[in-house]
Every structure is written in C-alpha cells, then in structure tokens.
Amino acid sequence: MITDGEQKLYRVLFNIFAKERQMPTWEQLQSKTGLPKAQLVERLLRLQEAGKLLWDDQETPQTVILIQQPFLQTEQKRPSAATYFTDY
Prior knowledge:
Number of strands: 2
Helix content: 40-55%
Structural class: mainly alpha
Strand content: 5-15%
Distance between the termini: 42 Å
Number of helices: 4
Shape: elongated
Order of helices and strands: HHHEEH
C-alpha cells in the first residue's frame, strides 16, 4: 500500500519530468516536498518495492524510471441528456 507521502513524491517526480523532460535533482525534490534527503531516499525505496519505479543508481534521483503514471482516479463519463433520450 502506498502512503500519501509516497504518492505525493511520485506525483512530484511525474510532474517535473513531464514539464522539464528530465528527472529532478535532490535540491528540487527537497524544495517541492519539504523533506530531507534521507526521507526522500526512504520513500523512493518504498516506491521501488511497490513496483511504481525503478532506481538503479541510488546516488542521484535523476536515474529514476517511472513505470506507471500517477495514481489517477478514473472519472466516470456522465451521459448527456441527448443520449438519455436516444438510448432509452
């Protein structure tokens, strides 16, 4: 099970990568999450154990490879009024 802190870190990683097309540095992660490097490493390792990312060189977060997209809630598409009258 992924905690809220791990989910936040994963979203930060995904958003920075989507915007800048590169993984963040330790300084960027610390400023975005407000966590020290030791806690960031711990959360990255837990995300790796959960199968959400790969992290071979654990000296830098720039070697992180995201396996899945962030934890998105699937929205149910609401039918329009027109489909109600045509379908029923």
